[in-house]
What does this fold into?
Amino acid sequence: MSTSAWNPPKEVSAQRAIRRRRVALAVLALASCTSSATGAKATGELGNGTFDYFCTGASDPVCEGGVPATDFPDCLLLGGRFEMGYTAYDLDELHGWGYEFVYVKPASESFFGGLDGLTALRLGTSAFVAYADDNVIDILHVTTVAPDGIILKGAESTDPVDLVEVEVGSAVSIQAFGSSTACAQVGGAVPVTVESSDAAVARAGTGDGVQISGEAEGTATITVHLGELSREVQVVVIPAATTTDTDSSAETETGATETSATETGATETGATETGATTGDSSGDATGSSGTGSDSGTGTGTGG
It folds into this structure.
């Protein structure tokens, strides 16, 4: 809080008069003021601190996936639930002035109401007011719009989802958010309802998102309703995975490729038996030649 904006008056009556004048002037200037968002904070239009936005449910698009808010919403969704806080820039100074409590509340309970968090009840623009005890120290205007669409996303993904797969006996979770083409970043957890086309195959319920459980093999359609809006997601239920003892240490038996000694067996060059074909060529064929004795004697006389 700037000290120039909150110089202590000398008397209580003068102090109250100055506060009233400052608040009146600030309200007149609201039309030309715009808030700047830093993370989940928006600077108040009087510049004395930040209005802090908090999600109260898994269906708030500001806290997608359960992650703390990063951007103060441009608009709030009709029917959306949230919480609003305030952080003064100079709380010590406020305490020094004798203020004990700093808090924020809607300027009109017809726009924002509720005991357990706040709910956007009406379309249009209204304000949140920060108080130090019963004195106004800051203000912020916020516009409420009607949702005109539903966005479905995986529990741990930022990608839209139209088809989910779940095993028999298991469950998956998806996120369901309201959306509006009127604002880049909307806020507020708008309650949704769900129904299944075949509860014997897949059941659906709400809680921290949309829970889908597989009951039996087959397909079913889960319809998500947000007011008069609806969006469908196809569900395929597959058999439960069987546990197999896959021995990860099983050795790929590249068994000793038995390059058994290629038996280049001793090629038996056996002694080629050049057997002594020693025929009996030298055998004596000496037959006994019989000698006949011609004993005739011819005597001739040549004349």
Notes: Residues 3-145 form one domain. Residues 1-39, 247-303 have pLDDT under 50 and may be disordered.
